[in-house]
Amino acid sequence: MTIQRVNSKWAKTLVLLKSDYLRQYIPLTKLFSRETVFQMLNEYGMIYVKPINGTFGKGVIRVERTIASNRSYKYQQGTDIHYYASFGDLYNMLLRQKKNRKYIVQKGIHLLRHQKRRFDIRVMVQKNLHGEWEATGIIGRLAHPAKIVTNYHSGGTPLPIDTLMSDHASSHELAIYKNRLQKLSITIASQLAAAYPNLKEIGVDIAIDHKLHPWILEVNTRPDLQIFRKLSDQNVFHKMYRYAIAYGRYKR
Ligand SMILES: Nc1ncnc2c1ncn2[C@@H]1O[C@H](COP(=O)(O)OP(=O)(O)O)[C@@H](O)[C@H]1O
Ligand SMILES: [Mg+2]
Questions:
Q1: Whose CA is nearest to atom 24 of ligand 1?
Q2: What is the pLDDT of residue 69?
Q3: Distance from first CA to last CA of the chain, Å, rounded?
């Protein structure tokens, strides 16, 4: 039996939106068009524009509306920053980057910071040896100081969530909060598995805003296990690997 992989961020978002419960955790997401970029920028002031089939933070763009009249729009991709006076100029730049690829537009979440750098959370959920969904790992990812993505492959640093959240929650609050993120991620796995029955593992990217509201940025169906090796507790990675072997991701 093969493990189900789903690349399209758009298809996965549509499946999650079928759940009334999950909807509150999904930032508004639309297919890329001149209208959706314009409207969402006006509505939210900051948006992320992302390739539907992207990975590793590649091609991810952050756009902000600013108050400076001659620099009304701020564009950032990688460490590349541009300012535009008009929406038309900004939009032309987006089209040049997009080329013929499909993109989505998503409400931008102002991520929590640790030592001035943005971070988000990755939760790993796998089918365990009894065929039940189990949250097997949770880790934070601290963005490179000059970048707008947290991905390891884009210069982000995997760190324990306790380290990153220490400025934002007490250890008691954090224990409860981690539990909540794990339960949320298991619900996401069940919801996706209803549409994709051969799903065995997911890695959920979760943004946390200043009210500590969790936002589902994307769900990976081919999640990287290696980042969990960075945790001091090696049992976390070993269990993940054991489960992954059991459902056939790796050869025995
Ligand atoms: N809506 C958003 N608000 C804030 N940050 C975002 C948003 N979408 C993506 N990001 C940042 O960009 C990173 C990469 O985006 P993601 O959707 O996970 O695509 P990829 O498949 O390239 O990992 C995220 O981990 C997060 O740091
Ligand atoms: Mg991601």
A1: 149
A2: 78
A3: 15
Q: Is the beta carbon of 137 within 6 A of some atom in ligand 1? A: no
User: Is ligand 1 within 6 A of the CB of residue 215?
Assistant: no
Instruction: Tell me the average pLDDT across 242-252.
Output: 93
Helix (H) or strand (E) segment spanning residue 3: none
Residue 143 alpha carbon, nearest atom of ligand 1: 27
| pLDDT tens for each residue of 119-138 | 999 999 999 999 999 999 99
The CA R_g of the chain, rounded to the nearest whole Å, is 18
Cα 59 to chain centroid distance, Å, stands at 14
Q: Which of 43, 149, 153, 215 to mutate to test the pocket of ligand 1 (most atoms within 8 A of CB)?
A: 149
140 lines ligand 1 (CB under 6 A): no
What's the distance, CA 124 to chain centroid?
A: 12
- Cα separation, 82 vs 97, whole angstroms: 13
- The position carrying tokens 């040896």 is 129
- Residue pair 138/124 in contact (Cβ under 8 Å)? The answer is yes
Domains and CATH numbers, the chain: 18-26+111-246 (3.30.470.20), 29-107 (3.30.1490)
Angle (CA) 57 120 198, round 5°: 70
Find the mean pLDDT for residues 154-173: 98
pLDDT tens-place string over residues 21-70:
999 999 999 999 999 999 999 999 999 999 999 999 999 999 999 988 78
164 phi/psi in degrees, rounded to 5: -70, -35
Pick from 205, 206, 220 the residue to mutate for probing ligand 1's pocket: most ligand atoms within 8 Å of its CB: 205
Distance between CA atoms of residues 93 and 252, nearest Å: 48
